[in-house]
Amino acid sequence: MSEKDPQFYDVKHIIETNRENNHYFFNETTIEYMGIKFYPHVFHHCYFISSEMYPHQSPDGVEKYTIRRADKEGSVTSVGILARFATLQEALDNIEEIIVEDKKERGIE
Question: Do the beta carbons of residue 80 and residue 67 sit within 8 Å?
């Protein structure tokens, strides 16, 4: 039997778990520096979409979207290519395929 993914209810639950375990992805300084925003929905209980400004803190920065996964301690990993999507809709249109690939690579049910 393979390992199972954690069961988060929403991004707020991931943020709380991340902070409780002293991880830094959701640190206010990091969020401000990178211009991070979070789509509130969690997919398959541990995947979510974030956006960041590239280059960071540039007035001419461009918002790009990344699919992320949280582990049971709320630590966050990028899934696939960082800043791969130009729009939220593009990330939403591709998230299920990316999740299937990620779970297959990790041997997760």
Answer: yes
Task: Let me know the angle formed at the C-alpha of 86 by 102 and 104, rounded to the nearest 5 degrees.
Answer: 5
Take residue 23 and report the two structure tokens written for it. Answer: 């991880």
85 secondary structure, DSSP code: B
Instruction: Inform me whether the pLDDT recorded for 79 exceeds 60.
Output: yes
What is the three-state SS of 1-63? Answer: CCCCCCCCCCHHHHHHHHHHCCCCCCCHHHHHHHCCEECCCCECCCEEEEEEEECCCCCCCEE
Residues whose CB is less than 8 angstroms from the CB of residue 70 and which lie 6 or more positions away in sequence, other chains included: 6, 8, 14, 17, 18, 46, 47, 48, 76, 77
Question: What digits encode the pLDDT tens for the residues 48-68?
Answer: 999 998 887 778 889 999 999
Specify the pLDDT at position 51. Answer: 95
In the block, residue with structure tokens 């520096």: 33
Instruction: Give pTM, 2 decimals.
Output: 0.90
